[in-house]
Amino acid sequence: MRYVLDHDLHNHSFISPCSRDDRQTKQAIFAYALTNGYRLVALTDHGWDTKVDDKGAPGWGGNDMERLRSNLPLPQAKRCRFLMGCEIDMNRHGVFGLSAEERERFDFIIASVSHLNLTHFTIDPAQVGSDAASRKAYYEKRLHTLLDMDDLPFYKMGLAHFTTGNICNAELHRCISLFSDAELAAVFEKVKARGMGVELNFVPRAANAEDLDIILRPHRIAKQVGCKFYFGGDAHHPERFGERRAEFETIVDLLDLKESDKWEFIPRMIAENAQ
Ligand SMILES: [Zn+2]
Ligand SMILES: [Zn+2]
Fold it and tell me: Is the pTM of this model over 0.85?
């Protein structure tokens, strides 16, 4: 059975510093979900938990967890559940920005180790260059640092946008190409073992055939090793809502995703809502 698109687990409200769009409200996100017939949607604003020892590298301008929670309560319906989530970075010292206490309080957590555009927060330009080789090595190290953490609730965590341009704005495709199949498999074997979901949201139309193949390869390897997937549009503005569903459908076709490739967290959350 073909993968059924019944969710979008990555959405930003105006509270995210990179949105700052008054139209990007919880009501607008929920309306987008209902319009598309989704049964599960998540709010995942950027934040940094100020209760964590950041070792001198805090992020997101003090957008702390209380600020994220100012969006509560979220609209809910029997046919669509709205999860309270967050998108959390690991800083340049390898600190994940969510305390144990706060990990309990969110339904869903997106882990982003790929925001290498956030100079001084996630990356020290004196240590890591902007060229493809430096960025590949640093990104790979960060992935393993995250996946080797023993105290994270991986069962409700997603791995954000594996091939985002933020990894290496200068030469993304070259950077991704520098990963061998074995290195990618080593990362995704750990993702699978942890039970994390792999996020899908690359934009198929933005790439020529060669570049698209480069973007598809990590995701194909993830599928081969048995990882499970969720979709997360990462919308920051309402204009993106109209385009996302069709892009997701294209990704389903490109990766030949079946319902059995869906991250188990999704049907579990939907089933709880139906009770
Ligand atoms: Zn992100
Ligand atoms: Zn995001």
Answer: yes
